[in-house]
Amino acid sequence: MFTPRYVKHSRLLLRHAQKYLRYKKDVLKDAERAEIESGITSLDRALREKKGDRIKAEAEALDGKLHKLTPVTWESHWRENCEVVLVAIIVAVGIRSYFLQPFKIPTGSMQPTLNGIIGHPMNEPAPNIVQQVAEFFLRGRNYINVVSKEDDRVEQIVPQKFAFFFTFSRIICQRQRFLVYAAPETLRQDFKVAPGNRYRRGDVIARGTIDTGDQVFVDKFSYNFVKPHRGDVFVFKTNGIPMIQVDPETGAPFYIKRLAGLPGDQMQIRSPMLYINGTPPPGRGFGRVMAAQEGYRGYAQGRDFLAHPETPFVVPEGRYFAMGDNSYNSYDSRYWGPVPEENLVGRGLFVYWPFVPHFGLIR
Questions:
Q1: Nearest 5°: phi and psi at 84?
Q2: Backbone CA torsion sign across 297, 303, 307, 312
Q3: Residue 256 β-bridge partners
Q4: Cα gap 281→260, rounded to integer Å
Q5: Alpha-carbon span 330 to 112, nearest angstrom
């Protein structure tokens, strides 16, 4: 760390020159090869003798010789930049495919452990732009304000995606149209906007805030070496699971739930309690739900699985039982059965955005 910068630069230049000579030795002319070899020898001797002025002079001379043989052109700049971008893309794809993959929580099935997309209707106008920017950065919160400009009727609400990440809705009325940064499901469930609704001029169609779903990193690496643990918040594909609709454009959706049942577990629900092999499962995640406090409501009976308190269900081999922490509003294994092992993607690891309220490790 105490080595002068010009010495470090000279050593790097020396290695570069030696590498260049090895690569180009068979195509260089004898005079050019001798010139570079002479420069390398002189710079190496100066470095060994630790003479500062001579090191600088010899490094400048060798650098000039190399530039003369390999002049910098705009093509080389573009080639180097493209190589850097290509390597960055390959590294990013590799990390995403085998180690960490980002996901967005779309629904409220894991609330309040993890937030999905939540709409909050309000009557008062939006705050100033500075506060809106701050809330978007900290909370992922967007403000919408859709007001009818004339007497009209909603005919349909059409989803529109931009850049594969941003979901908008186009509210199509008989006489007017609106583009809103919100999914159709959010407008329907939280703002009660639906085809057939009638509005008079000046009526509010949708006004309020929309909190984006938590953005999480999923650990795709661990499950290659260790078995999933009961209590994990895990992501899985829904390929081949009955009763789950497949989008013709994007394919089967990914779900995120809590892993409640392992292969061979005997499960029962006696609301608000969950029983695994005759006893409530340990762990903070299960404990919060069963306590039915601070936004949690306990576990609800299922429909096709765990529907009766006295009828246990045994998880088959090679399958895992998935349940949402928001049990009363979660479409999970109680409806369509356990998840095949081959569908598992990884363990929810970290909420990286928004920063409030769930930033940090997922538990």
A1: -65, -45
A2: negative
A3: 235
A4: 8
A5: 12
Question: pLDDT tens for residues 193-252?
Answer: 999 999 999 999 999 999 989 999 999 999 999 999 999 999 999 988 888 877 776 778
Instruction: Kindly report the pTM of this predicted structure.
Output: 0.76
Is the CB of residue 141 less than 8 Å from the CB of residue 208? Answer: no
What whole-number distance in Å separates Cα of residue 33 and Cα of residue 24? Answer: 9
Q: How far apart are CA 139 and CA 355, in angstroms?
A: 6
**Does residue 35 register a pLDDT over 70?**
yes
pLDDT tens string 129-154: 999 999 999 999 999 999 999 999 99
Confidence of residue 72 (pLDDT cuts 50, 70, 90): low
User: In degrees rounded to 5, what are phi and psi of residue 51?
Assistant: -100, 110
Side-chain-side CA neighbours of 209 within 13 Å: the count stands at 17
Residue where the block lists tokens 């529907």? 307
**CATH 1.20.1270, applies to 5-69:** yes
Nearest to 104 by CA among 187, 215, 199: 215
Burial of 245 (0-12, 13-18, 19+ CB in 10 A): exposed
CA–CA gap between residue 182 and residue 358 (Å, rounded): 21
Rg (CA), the chain: 31
Of the pLDDT bands very low, low, confident and very high (cuts 50, 70, 90), residue 164 is low
Domain coordinates in residue numbering, the chain: 5-69, 74-98, 118-211, 215-361
- DSSP-derived secondary structure for 86-125: HHHHHHHHHHHHHTEEEEE--SSTTTTTS---EEEE-SSP
What is the C-alpha separation between 78 and 63, in angstroms, rounded? 22
Q: Which listed CATH number (2.40.10.10, 1.10.4160.10, 2.10.109.10, 3.60.110.10) goes with 215-361? A: 2.10.109.10
